[in-house]
């Protein structure tokens, strides 16, 4: 079949939903006899991008049949940091001047799918090129994608044919939600911040972190955001004594940690397929025992063989010698919140070099040590020039993963 028979156009929600769902279903089946992950978009094919500042979905069509699709979104994020030219610093100053974020307009490609019966025809490449045209028209400087490190077809398409380069390798950490609640240590106090206070906190401590979204206020005020939680050693602060982030940073405790929770359960659901009857039975047994004998605190396997939801933990950070332990306490609090709301797992994504990674509970069998992010520079004239080419910059210790794109 020749390329000229392939039409790429914008997704039409009035007539394309069934065709898109069919392609999604065929792309997620996986090899016979092996476990695979099926994604149910709950009847909304653009659910994973619709909360971004700007988004677009394209479909590839042969005749009247949809054979592929791609989604893209655009936002402004931090790509580096600099010292203000107006700031003078001498060795007599107590503290050096704080760095300022360097922002860039960034696009993200996700959800690229091509029907198995129409692969190796250049459809994926055509979808990517058309999406990049929209990015350039919108003034985007950089485009990036995330894919599994061992998804050789995807990596080859973007690095060999589309001009992307391997950029960052963050870790996706997934922990099951057990039938029993987790105990949050009594030595830890957890305070829920309101959205405006959380915004002030994040802008003060995270604004120079790679991929930090300039519209963090939109994220924190989104209906899918379930809250931002701060953990401190008991006796330093309490919900009653909390006077705001400015007061907190005027006299911070020796250690603290923070994270926010995003309700992905209301966006999409996941389902593990291809498990044997033996594996299903063993998983069910752990849940029954955990439910009947919760004091044993058995690490039960959740019901992942039917559709389940997840909560995504983002904006994770902290300081001080006890920060990792405080992060672990926050993850326990987030686990209990997910249990109350009927989720199967909690997940987060952090830099592979993140110092607080040790404090994040996760099951290795559910997690991904190296998620691969590839990046491409689309334009040369949009940056203020203080950073140079972001694609050539070394990785930092942390990244900020936007929950709207998970």
UniProtKB/TrEMBL annotation:
Residue ranges annotated for the N-acetyltransferase domain, each copy included: 6-184
Sorted UniProt keywords: Acyltransferase, Transferase
Stored CDD domains: NAT_SF (cd04301)
Keyword flag DNA damage: no
Gene3D superfamilies: 3.40.630.30
InterPro entries for this protein: Acyl_CoA_acyltransferase, GNAT_dom, Plant_NAT
Key word Chaperone present: no
GO molecular function, one term: acyltransferase activity, transferring groups other than amino-acyl groups
Similarity comment text for this entry: Belongs to the acetyltransferase family.
Protein name as catalogued: N-acetyltransferase domain-containing protein
UniProt source species: Citrus clementina (Clementine)
